[in-house]
Amino acid sequence: MGHPIELQAVDGHRFQAWRADPPGKPKAGLVIVQEIFGLNEHVRKTADSYGYDGYLALAPALFDRIKPGIELGYSEDDVAKGRDLRAKVPAEKALNDIAACALALQRAGCVKVAVIGYCWGGTLAWLSATRITGLDACVSYYGGAVVQHLNETARCPVLFHFGETDASIPMSDVEKVGRALPDADLFVYPAGHGFNCEMRGSYDKPSADKARERTKEFLRRYCG
Predict the structure, then answer these.
(1) Confidence class of residue 132 from pLDDT cuts 50, 70 and 90?
(2) Which residues contact 12 (CB under 8 A, 6 or more apart)?
(3) Alpha helices in the chain, H assignment, sequence order
(4) Distances in Å between the alpha carbon of 77 and those of 73, 74, 80?
(5) CA dist list (Å): 150 to 6, 65, 126, 137, 204
(6) Mean pLDDT for the chain overall
(7) Torsion over CA of 137, 208, 191 and 40, rounded to 10 degrees?
(8) Which of 5, 14, 22, 172 is the most buried (most CB within 10 A)?
(9) Cβ distance 178 to 150 under 8 Å?
(10) Strand pairing class (113-118; 56-60)
């Protein structure tokens, strides 16, 4: 369904993004933000699935800042590589790419635009809500560093999804997020980190399905 396109960020960086078009007029535009594994098959499928749901979705290849075409799996070696790559992409540079996608969606005729991010992308979704103007909603799936940026103020509604048994995000951090952002929608699932990804051992279908249902309702509420 989807296909690759090239976009340019405000700092002149050119990068690849995956574009998934809906069957008809888009309900809204979505920026789908990757985990630490690059613009891989799972991210492309996720963008495609939102295209089928009626949204125009763009997923930026954030690791193009380092090298084009990086695509990892989910082995221990891949996790180590992904963490190393993530550390080489400053948040402000990744946010430039996300903002470029949001602008492209607006130029494509999307009146409303939201950001949905997973893992590293979950943190970037929160930072998008606080630092990028013109967004209508943001959805953060298990963003481990959200707790480090609770001094920032969201400019749009935010929905958080966390896993109760996530070894990388203790429940004490989730509780801090809840206390700091009482007006945000926050849900905890009986699952671990990466529970939304069907290609990972931590995939939990009931939790993934429930989170997707809540995300769709959240998008209907704020984006149409």
Answers:
(1) very high
(2) none
(3) 41-52, 76-87, 91-107, 120-131, 171-180, 205-223
(4) 9, 8, 5
(5) 33, 27, 9, 17, 28
(6) 98
(7) -80
(8) 22
(9) no
(10) unpaired
Please name which of 170, 206, 149, 11 lies closest in space to residue 93, comparing C-alpha atoms: 11
Q: Are 7 and 104 in contact (CB under 8 A)?
A: yes
> Which whole number is the average pLDDT over 166-177?
98
Joined tokens for residue 42: 């799972």
Backbone φ and ψ of 81, nearest 5°: -65, -45
Residue 224: which pLDDT band, with cuts at 50, 70 and 90?
A: confident
**Per-residue tokens: 85:** 């790559």
Neighbours of 52 (CB within 10 A): 12
Q: CB of 91 within 8 A of CB of 56?
A: no
Return the sign of the alpha-carbon dihedral for residues 58, 144, 157, 221. Answer: positive
pTM for this model (two decimals): 0.98
